[in-house]
Amino acid sequence: MAEELVRYSAEQGVATLTLDSPANRNALSTALISDFIAAIDRAEADDSVRALLLDHTGPVFCSGADLKETAAAREAGQVPAAALVELLARLVECPKPVVARVNGPARAGGLGLIAAADIAVCSASATFAFTEVRLGVVPAVISATVLPRLTSRAAAELYLTGAVFDGERAAGIGLVTAAVSDVDATVRGYLDALVLGAPGALAGAKALLRRPVREELDRLATLSASYFLSPEGREGVQAFAEKRAPSWVPEGRWPK
To answer: Which fold has domain 6-182?
Structure first.
């Protein structure tokens, strides 16, 4: 029996979906994404569930795409972007409010999950980065959920530099709802409020807030694949695996 990479529990109106692949920093492998979508299905089908909580085990919320799996798939001329497209669409389209508890670093695709949640709470010490350009690719698929959240100046800065930023900055630019010292208490407060809402009204309120994303996600998946399959994308992922600077970085400029 395959190991369960997203654990599911439901109590007092809240379904908790816990990313449980700490060995690879909760990377978005095909198996984890499949388990994640199955857990969303389960929560949507349970009439007693009013809200979903996205949680994680280990010190890292999500490190983004599983680059080992991506590199292997690429050798066959494939990039497993379609699975992430479906996951992000399902989170956005879920009729029940989604809350993300981010108590550790998030990178690249992990930021797409955070942005897809209706409410996101992080620790003030959590760190974030759109690292894609440093790997020779672009944050294409996640742009469908991320860009509507961010200010345009912040998006330009962080997409282009790949720089790390902290929880307070994430809250200031709209990536998360709040950066706090007590994540659990703040998350509990939001969930306590959400479960008081009528199911139909919560779904209706989400529909008012939502914009169509599937067509945009499909377009961005094609763009993403073109970069992962490009010479720069191949070099960037290989350099990451070998823990070295990619070939395009001037000598002496790669951060230690």
So the answer is: 2-enoyl-CoA Hydratase; Chain A, domain 1 (3.90.226)
User: Is the CB of residue 74 less than 8 Å from the CB of residue 64?
Assistant: no
Domain boundaries, the chain: 6-182
The pLDDT of residue 1 is above 70:
no
**Rounded to 10 degrees, what is the CA torsion of 217, 221, 223, 224?**
120
Question: Helix 214-228 and helix 81-93: axis angle, to 10°?
Answer: 150
Residue type, 156: A
In whole angstroms, what is the distance from residue 117 CA to residue 97 CA? 8
Which whole number is the average pLDDT over 9-37? 96
Separation in Å, CA 13 to CA 17, 85, 157, 191, 193: 13, 27, 39, 9, 11
What pLDDT is stored for residue 255 in this prediction?
Answer: 86
**pLDDT of 124-163, one tens digit each?**
999 999 999 999 999 999 999 999 999 999 999 999 999 9
